[in-house]
Specification:
alpha/beta; 341 residues; two-stranded antiparallel ribbon; eight-stranded parallel β-barrel; 34% helix
């Protein structure tokens, strides 16, 4: 079995270790001069790259506005994203951008016209190409957590009877149809991943979709949950959550790399996830908020500044007020010559 220190090559990109920073939203951050992304985001992701993460997936970025340089795609935001990508690469981190498709609450996917869907797909393709131009090594389509693309995948949500509904192959077309154009625009070394859940709404549905994505050329699956959090049960000897078990289910059936996640917050958990073959990459969310250098601490078997697992998590309001961060040493404010702001 692999070790968490081992590298992993995807599309020619060497991911230097098996620890990934998940695309956790920074809800309290504000961009500079009215832009969505700014200095806070640059410093946030740069510090985790400096902290040793092998893979960094930058938080959900709505594709709306990419064609008009509005929304999350203003010139100022794109400048910040380019600096995030450059800084991550300077620390030898593979860096990807997660792409969402409009908002989950305001879209009735069953009422969309075919032309509406084609327009959405144009935005998705344009956003992927733009991420490539900004220096990202790949993109991840956010088909989880009830977002628009997730609703297309889920057989209970998707009641369409046209080319984008009914069968699993049709429900996956929101992503699979655009893959050839993205490959054409970004080249063969650009990583394309999907974040999805096991249940869509059943395990059989989810596994069928995952196999369709693999056959279509998706390079990696980031396995979280779909419309609802899975409740289990999991085998008695499985030491992680039902969400983490979903990654293991996919890993046993697929050959593409799988990110396993959810409440992986200690060195022991991260190492066990990989060494036991439950996932190819350990996805770290709140653990990276509590300890920006989580990856280096795990890889070097040093003490991790562990998440407290607070009942009322500061992540939803202001993760910089996370009580675990009070234990961190003050920042020096120094940057290496590689970093840009």
């Amino acid at each position: 079995m692999p070790d968490i220190n081992d590298s992993l090559v995807i599309r020619g990109h060497r991911i230097k270790n098996r620890i990934a920073m998940l695309p956790m939203m920074t809800f309290s951050f504000r961009g500079d001069n009215g832009n969505y992304f700014g200095t806070q985001h640059i410093e946030h992701y740069t510090e985790r790259a400096k902290g040793g993460a092998g893979l960094i997936i930058v938080q959900s970025t709505n594709v709306v506005g990419v064609s008009t340089a509005t929304g999350m795609w203003t010139p100022g935001s794109m400048d910040a994203l380019a600096k995030i990508a450059a800084n991550a690469a300077a620390y030898d981190a593979t860096v990807m951008l997660q792409l969402s498709c409009r908002n989950r609450e305001d879209i009735d996917i069953n009422a969309l016209t075919t032309n509406d869907i084609h327009e959405m797909q144009k935005e998705m393709k344009h956003a992927a190409a733009k991420a490539h131009d900004l220096g990202f090594h790949g993109v991840e389509f956010h088909c989880a957590h009830g977002f628009t693309q997730c609703r297309f995948l889920d057989a209970a949500q998707n009641r369409r009877t046209d080319a984008f509904g009914a069968s699993a192959i049709n429900r996956a077309k929101i992503v699979t149809d655009i893959l050839p154009d993205i490959r054409r625009d970004t080249g063969n070394s650009f990583i394309i991943a999907v974040r999805m859940g096991e249940y869509a709404p059943t395990r059989k549905d989810g596994l069928e979709l995952a196999k369709i994505f693999e056959a279509a050329g998706i390079d990696m699956l980031d396995v979280s949950f779909g419309m609802h959090m899975p409740e289990g049960p999991v085998p008695e000897d499985f030491p992680f959550s039902p969400v983490t078990h979903s990654a293991y289910v996919f890993k046993q059936e697929l050959t593409l790399p799988v990110i396993g996640l959810y409440e992986i917050r200690t060195e022991e958990q991260a190492r066990l996830l990989i060494s036991s073959g439950y996932a190819d990459i350990a996805g770290i969310g709140r653990g990276m908020f509590a300890d920006p250098h989580f990856a280096n601490h795990v890889l070097n078997s040093e003490a991790v500044n562990t998440c407290f697992t607070c009942k009322e998590c500061s992540w939803f309001t202001d993760h910089t007020k996370c009580p675990a961060q009070k234990r961190l040493a003050p920042k020096t404010g120094k940057r290496t010559p590689k970093e840009t702001l």
